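Q: Given only this backbone (412 positions), what sequence would you predict?
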């Protein structure tokens, strides 16, 4: 597959221009190495998946780092966490920006062996699998455009495409390696990808003897995506203790395979359900693990609806990571079972997002957003229902509540 420009590249270049150590984090095979090597010029490239280099690094971390040129890229740094202290000493002697570009397939900030996170010396950026906007070559400005009021109701309707493109998009997912493959070949790659991570990568970030147990947990979670996380229920279903499931969930988070979205709360509300929501990050992996095919779009609309919600969360979080907004993401649900799929906060201001797989909007679709607006008060800035329809329209005659086509996520 040809290289696709990544919308995070500008942020990466800025970070390298003013920070000694820049760490590019994200799941394996999401494109970190490709992005890191774009325009590398005189920068030396080292991949710690190379067994010989890894042995050298582990045998003498300080000597290994001291022998490197001034600017270097070290790929898969989580395989040799011992290098981090040597890198810290090295940059303390020379704080020139852009000296070390590190990539990691595990979240280094959550690894106990890397407690010293080079505070003040390192910037962390997060690269996700390809978003739909990156696949289409769009700038990926949906989140910024919406939150700054640039998405308006449309005076004319455009024809609704038939059939929906959503089933194919969800089944494909965002890993670059599956682009251009047939569905069966893509699914074969996805299964081998997960097998490789379970067999190899978990040893780099945790002491887990039974990788198969982690694989079974992930397969189970693929059926639970976009639902409230009940750890005790998961433990009972899989025959493990709650502490074991907690440990496995933390491991899957570190490897960027799942996202645990916390519950949003306000000091003015006492009726919130505090359980987080569980999201499998990549919709392609989720549909492969749960054996959902695009041809089941109509008969399994409920299951696809959950995958679609997780897909939208993934798109929005990726946009937030390459924007200057620095948003935080939550979900809302109260004891009346009124909910909002995604609550976004920026500097105390609040926005809400609901996700619908349907091609039409009903009067009740804004119920959760209205409740969020009531609780957030003056902090509430607006809400949208993303749906599979053709036009941007007002909800409940309010200017701050809109129904917006899902396609806008990758068209703007």
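A: Predicted residues:
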């Amino acid at each position: 597959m040809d290289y696709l420009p990544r919308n995070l590249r500008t942020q990466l270049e800025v970070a390298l221009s003013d920070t000694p150590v820049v760490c590019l984090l994200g799941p394996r095979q999401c494109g970190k190495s490709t992005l890191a090597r774009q325009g590398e010029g005189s920068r030396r490239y080292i991949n710690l998946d190379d067994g010989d280099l890894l042995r050298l690094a582990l045998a003498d971390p300080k000597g290994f780092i001291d022998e490197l040129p001034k600017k270097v890229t070290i790929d898969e740094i989580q395989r040799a966490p011992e290098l981090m202290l040597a890198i810290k000493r090295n940059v303390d002697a020379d704080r020139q920006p852009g000296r070390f570009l590190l990539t990691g397939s595990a979240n280094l900030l959550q690894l106990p062996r890397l407690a010293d996170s080079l505070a003040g010396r390192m910037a962390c950026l997060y690269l996700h699998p390809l978003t739909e906007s990156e696949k289409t070559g769009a700038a990926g400005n949906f989140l910024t455009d919406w939150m700054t009021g640039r998405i308006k109701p449309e005076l004319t309707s455009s024809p609704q495409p038939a059939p929906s493109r959503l089933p194919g998009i969800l089944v494909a997912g965002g890993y670059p390696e599956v682009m251009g493959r047939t569905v069966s070949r893509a699914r074969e790659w996805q299964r081998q990808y997960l097998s490789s991570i379970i067999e190899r990568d978990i040893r780099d970030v945790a002491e887990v003897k039974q990788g198969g147990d982690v694989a079974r947990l992930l397969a189970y979670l693929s059926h639970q995506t976009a639902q409230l996380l009940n750890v005790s229920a998961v433990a009972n279903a899989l025959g493990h203790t709650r502490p074991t499931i907690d440990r496995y969930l933390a491991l899957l988070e570190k490897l960027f395979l799942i996202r645990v979205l916390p519950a949003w709360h306000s000091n003015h509300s006492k009726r919130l359900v505090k359980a987080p929501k569980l999201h499998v990050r990549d919709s392609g992996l989720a549909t492969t693990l749960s054996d959902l095919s695009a041809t089941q779009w109509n008969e399994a609309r409920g299951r696809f609806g959950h995958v679609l919600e997780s897909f939208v969360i993934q798109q929005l979080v990726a946009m937030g990571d390459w924007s200057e907004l620095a948003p935080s993401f939550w979900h809302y649900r109260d004891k009346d079972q009124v909910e909002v799929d995604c609550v976004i906060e920026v500097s105390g201001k609040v926005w809400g997002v609901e996700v619908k797989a349907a091609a039409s909007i009903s009067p009740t679709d804004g119920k959760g957003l209205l409740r969020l607006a009531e609780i957030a008060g003056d902090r509430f800035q607006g809400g949208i229902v993303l749906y599979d329809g053709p036009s941007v329209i007002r909800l409940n005659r309010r200017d701050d509540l809109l129904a917006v086509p899902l396609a806008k996520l990758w068209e703007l």
